[in-house]
Amino acid sequence: MALPRGQARGWVKAAKLAQRRRPAEDTGGPQSPAPGSQRAALYVHWPYCEKRCSYCNFNKYIPRGVDEAALRRCLVTEAQTLLRLSGVRRVESVFFGGGTPSLASPQTVAAVLEAVAQAAHLPADSEVTLEANPTSASGSRLAAFGAAGVNRLSIGLQSLDDTELQLLGRTHSASDALQTLAEAQRLFPGRVSVDLMLGLPAQQVGPWLRQLQDLLRCCDDHVSLYQLSLERGTALFTQVQKGALPAPDPELAAEMYQEGRAVLREAGFRQYEVSNFARNGALSTHNWTYWQCGQYLGVGPGAHGRFIPQGAGGHTREARIQTLEPDNWMKEVTLFGHGTRRRIPLSELELLEEVLVMGLRTDVGITHQHWQQFEPQLTLWDLFGASKEVKGLQEQGLLLLDHRGLRCSWEGLAVLDSLLLSLLSRLQEAWQQKTPSSVPRG
Ligand code: SF4
């Protein structure tokens, strides 16, 4: 569907004028869409990549004769449909992920943003992020994405070592990555994030830390550290299975993570989430919505969303998953206006489990106020105040429960998964004990 050009230019122009970072509190985060509000974040999935990286099991395809105009129409249609079905009136942030969305044309990005700005309120200073791979992100392309409304870049740099990049099957070299990073910072100052991987086969702590130090000399205000996860069905998994490569050593990876986060802290970065570090308030608004269990819409093949559909009683949040394969997804969008393959209503307990698991990933954790938005009857004190296990975790200095809420300490954040086991079972136990007579539902 063609969209009126005047309005599109209007939004992009306003967005350009408003290109300033929304300041985040030193110890807090950006505001997230409240659980049942008419506000949401929007994720857009671009499903294609130039080639398959050796470790990747994401939903991505190698393009063969992609009809981008048709794909664009479907992305626009699905965004409009999901905005209507969710009753969302205000979109707080947009994230183009993939796949490799920097392979899409800037026109496609602009068309989706235009459609969103027409169907809902998209504030001019909304965070609009695009994931970019160095080989598909020349300076002129990045500038064109900026002109289309993108104001933040997340660069899949992964490593600054050419041998490691080859092992990962990346299409770029370390020098390509550094060049893209420099261009990105020139065009989007203060709004460029880089991903760095750790825990690769044969990777050693010292050389990896030197990569991180090198990166810190030239990076912007946001860094994400990801541990390689060896996924069945990937080329890397097969190589390790056959003995052609050593298996990644989890102890070395843990050491890299611990040393890496200390180096980042020393460099003035706040670890605001398990894998994410920011300085000068450059937290990702979009991802903050996920960790705070705000509503989000997922558009595109295989995209995930979480929202309360209108007309279904108006209070049950659903997990929605779009059809994975792009051609099938396009057929469904053409026929039905959206390609939702699965709708999974979330029970109250499941939602609370998500609030706990996602919230504790952040340094702010779960404030009493935040928890109350999801569960007004059982407070965090009711749930965890008398638990011996929680007391034990507090005594070990891993967890804090106080007037602010429940959160991990610096040490606790590094071992979050082990803490969650106790916390989730305590929540489930308390939920089973909660009866309609003892705790009246609103
Ligand atoms: S570019 Fe990203 S999505 Fe594409 S194959 Fe590589 S890791 Fe996977």
UniProtKB/TrEMBL annotation:
- Where the record annotates domain Radical SAM core, the positions are 34-270
Q: Which Pfam families match?
A: HemN_C (PF06969), Radical_SAM (PF04055)
Q: Where is this region: Disordered?
A: 1-37
Principal cellular location given in the protein's record: mitochondrion
Subcellular localization? Mitochondrion
Keyword Nucleotide-binding assigned: no
Which superkingdom heads the taxonomic lineage of this protein's source? Answer: Eukaryota
* Residue ranges of coiled coil: none
> InterPro entries from the entry?
Aldolase_TIM (IPR013785), Coproporphyrinogen-III_oxidase (IPR034505), Elp3/MiaA/NifB-like_rSAM (IPR006638), HemN_C (IPR010723), HemW-like (IPR004559), rSAM (IPR007197), rSAM_sf (IPR058240)
Keywords, sorted A to Z: 4Fe-4S, Chaperone, Heme, Iron, Iron-sulfur, Metal-binding, Mitochondrion, S-adenosyl-L-methionine, Transit peptide
Is the keyword Chaperone assigned to this protein?
Answer: yes
NCBIfam families listed in its UniProt record? hemN_rel
What functional role does this protein have?
May be a heme chaperone, appears to bind heme. Homologous bacterial proteins do not have oxygen-independent coproporphyrinogen-III oxidase activity. Binds 1 [4Fe-4S] cluster. The cluster is coordinated with 3 cysteines and an exchangeable S-adenosyl-L-methionine.
What does the similarity note say? Belongs to the anaerobic coproporphyrinogen-III oxidase family. HemW subfamily.
Q: PANTHER family recorded for this chain? A: COPROPORPHYRINIGEN III OXIDASE, RADICAL S-ADENOSYL METHIONINE DOMAIN-CONTAINING PROTEIN 1, MITOCHONDRIAL
Question: What is the protein name given in its UniProt record?
Answer: Radical S-adenosyl methionine domain-containing protein
Q: Which organism is it from?
A: Rangifer tarandus platyrhynchus (Svalbard reindeer)
